[in-house]
Amino acid sequence: MTEALPTSSPTPAAHPGLLRRAIDNPVILKELRGLMRGRRAFLLLTGYIAVISVFIGLVYISVQVQASFSQNDPQFRQGIGKAIFGVIVLLELLLVSFIAPALTCGAITAERERQTFDLLRTTLISARALVFGKLGAALVYLLLLIFAALPIQSLAFLLGGVGLAELLISGLLLVVTALFFSALGLFFSSFLRRTLAATVSSYGAIVVSYLALGLAFFMFALISLPNISSNQMAEIIFTLGVWAIICTHPMLTAIISEVILIEEQSIFYTSSVLGSANLPLPSPWIPFTIIYLGAAALLILLSISFVNRPDRS
């Protein structure tokens, strides 16, 4: 009984920080041990690096013809560096979007299928600790994937053309995207009762969102802006609509943020990328981060609520 006394002590050790709570969470430790002991984690990491390496090799081959007469041009080398960096970031965003749900869409449903979910609920582990433990283990592995691609990204720094701002923004986009799609898979895993249903729902939502937002963007792009430029209100609505689509699509956010950074030398805002409405708009990575973090927080809260609910017979 004396071992329980430190939990009620007013000393700083009784109020551990976020990192300490994550380390002490038994669910995170269990999930990480189970994930890293199997072959799937290493095969997934190998395939992840292989896909990125193949695409970067194709970029090198595509510029080989031009390199014969432009290899001494610093601007040309910087262009290659930007191209390599951009391809890596876009590939990572796409791969992380599809790998993240695979790590969490069976987190809760698998416990139900193994008939261990009721045992977990009888322990001292709260629903919040269970959800954050499952989510934390997935995020740790996704961060491993993101950091594993840094040596390939370093090729862009050798060629030049990539700054610290681009590295920081791309890293933030990758982490936020990993968090959101991990929370999405966990939400379906807590809401549904079968892993197959949660997997299909997660990937269905991802594919539909990517395709729907991409199609909406290109439909807006096909609209002739000069046809509505005579109406200032219509032009403002058009600009805000396109901007809303960009700021909710990971790949469009990364591309347009890079365009703003290159053309306007601005990290935080722009006023001339779309049309002539001259609206002071934030750079897409800012609303993207706010929207996706808010959506991830909502999905996590819903997951905790669904884990807490009584099982339906």
Low-pLDDT residue intervals, each spanning 5 or more residues: 1-15
Strand content: under 5%
- Coarse morphology: globular
Determine the fraction of residues in helical runs and give it as a percent range. over 70%
Q: What is the string of SSEs from the N terminus onward?
A: HHHHHHHHHHHHHHEEH
Rg (CA only): 23 Å
Largest sheet: 2 strands, antiparallel
Look at the structure and give the mean pLDDT.
80
N→C terminal distance: 38 Å
Secondary structure tally: strands: 2
Q: What's the number of domains?
A: 1
Neighbour order of strands in the largest sheet: 1-2
Structure classification: mainly alpha
Number of helices: 15
List keywords for this structure.
single chain, 313 residues, mainly alpha, two-stranded antiparallel ribbon, globular, disordered N terminus
Topology:
Blueprint: H1 18-24, H2 26-37, H3 39-62, H4 64-70, H5 74-104, H6 109-113, H7 117-122, H8 127-148, H9 150-159, H10 164-191, H11 195-222, H12 225-228, H13 232-246, H14 250-263, E1 269-270, E2 281-282, H15 285-308
Antiparallel strand pairs: 1-2
Overview of the structural elements:
- The protein has 313 residues and is mainly alpha-helical.
- The protein has one domain (16-308).
- 76% of the residues lie in helices and 1% in strands.
- Strands 1-2 form a two-stranded antiparallel sheet.
- Helix 2 (26-37) packs across helix 8, helix 5 runs antiparallel to helix 8 and helix 10 packs antiparallel against helix 14 (250-263).
- The model is unreliable at 1-15 (pLDDT under 50).
